[in-house]
Backbone:
C-alpha cells in the first residue's frame, strides 16, 4: 500500500461519521450482492398463515426477525432484496447522469462562446421545470420499469454535474499544463480527457456520492407512488406503500423500509461530506 493510500485510510478511520458511513455502505452492498444467500425466505412467496406477524423480538415467530407483511412475506428478506433495486437505480442512474453532465460541462466550459450559451440555457430550462413533473410525465408515457427508471433519472438528473464541471473547467483551462498541451499540438479530445478532466474530478466525486443518496430517495418516492419498478420485484418504496394502511396496527411494515432507506442515504451522505473535506484544498486544514 502506498503512503498516500495509508494516509487516506488513516484520515478515513479518524472520522467516526465517515467510518460508519463506509461500513454501512459496504454492508448494504454485500447484502445486495449475496441477497439469495443472505435472505432467510423467498421475498415474493406469500404465507397467509403468518400474515401480519410482529417481529420475533416483539412476540412474533422466531423465524421472522422483522415480522411479516399483509401477505405473510418475510420483511427482512424483502428488505434484503429491495437493496438491490435501490443500489442499481442509485449507482446506474448517477453514472448515466454523470456521463451526460460531465461531457456537456467539459464542452461548455472549454469551448465557451455560443456553444456554452446554448448548453447552459438548456440546463437553466431543465432546472426551471420541477423534476417531479418530468419524472411523472416520462414514466407515465413509457411505463415504469427498472431500465426506464434508470434512463429517466440519468437523463434528467445531470444538470448539477454540468454546472459544477463547467465552473471548474473555466478555472482550469487557462492553467499552464493545459496551455502547454495545446501548444504541443495535442488533439482537443486528448487535452480534455488527459489533462482537464482529471483536474476537475474531485468535485465530481463528491457530487456523485451525494447524488446517489438523492436518487435512492427519489426511487423510493416513485415506487411509493406506483411509478417505480413494478411487482413482483421488491422495492423499499413499494413496501412503504403497502404498509401505510397498517401503520396503526402493524407498525413494522412501514417502519423498517423507512429505516433502511434512511441508513443507506445517511451512509452516502457521511461519505460525501468526508470526501468533500478531503478533496477540497480549502477545507483540508480544518
Residues:
Amino acid at each position: 500500500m502506498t503512503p498516500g493510500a495509508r494516509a487516506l485510510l488513516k484520515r478515513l478511520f479518524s472520522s467516526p461519521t465517515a467510518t460508519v458511513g463506509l461500513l454501512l455502505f459496504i454492508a448494504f452492498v454485500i447484502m445486495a450482492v449475496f441477497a439469495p444467500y443472505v435472505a432467510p425466505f423467498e421475498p415474493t412467496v406469500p404465507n397467509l398463515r403468518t400474515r401480519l406477524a410482529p417481529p420475533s423480538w416483539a412476540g412474533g415467530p422466531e423465524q421472522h426477525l422483522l415480522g411479516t407483511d399483509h401477505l405473510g412475506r418475510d420483511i427482512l428478506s424483502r428488505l434484503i432484496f429491495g437493496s438491490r433495486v435501490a443500489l442499481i437505480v442509485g449507482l446506474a442512474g448517477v453514472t448515466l447522469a454523470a456521463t451526460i453532465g460531465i461531457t456537456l460541462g467539459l464542452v461548455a466550459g472549454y469551448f465557451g462562446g455560443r456553444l456554452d450559451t446554448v448548453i447552459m440555457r438548456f440546463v437553466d430550462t431543465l432546472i426551471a421545470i420541477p423534476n417531479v413533473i418530468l419524472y411523472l410525465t416520462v414514466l407515465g408515457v413509457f411505463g415504469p420499469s427498472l431500465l426506464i427508471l434508470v434512463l429517466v433519472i440519468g437523463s434528467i438528473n445531470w444538470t448539477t454535474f454540468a454546472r459544477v464541471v463547467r465552473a471548474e473547467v473555466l478555472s482550469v483551462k487557462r492553467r499552464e499544463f493545459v496551455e502547454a498541451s495545446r501548444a504541443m499540438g495535442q488533439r482537443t479530445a486528448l487535452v480534455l480527457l488527459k489533462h482537464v478532466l482529471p483536474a476537475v474530478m474531485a468535485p465530481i466525486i463528491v457530487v456523485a456520492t451525494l447524488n446517489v443518496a438523492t436518487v435512492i430517495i427519489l426511487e423510493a418516492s416513485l415506487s411509493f407512488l406506483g411509478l417505480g419498478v413494478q411487482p413482483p420485484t421488491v422495492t423499499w418504496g413499494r413496501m412503504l406503500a403497502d404498509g401505510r394502511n397498517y401503520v396503526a396496527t402493524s407498525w413494522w411494515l412501514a417502519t423498517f423500509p423507512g429505516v433502511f432507506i434512511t441508513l443507506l442515504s445517511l451512509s452516502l451522505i457521511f461519505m460525501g461530506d468526508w470526501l468533500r473535506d478531503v478533496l477540497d484544498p480549502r477545507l483540508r486544514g480544518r
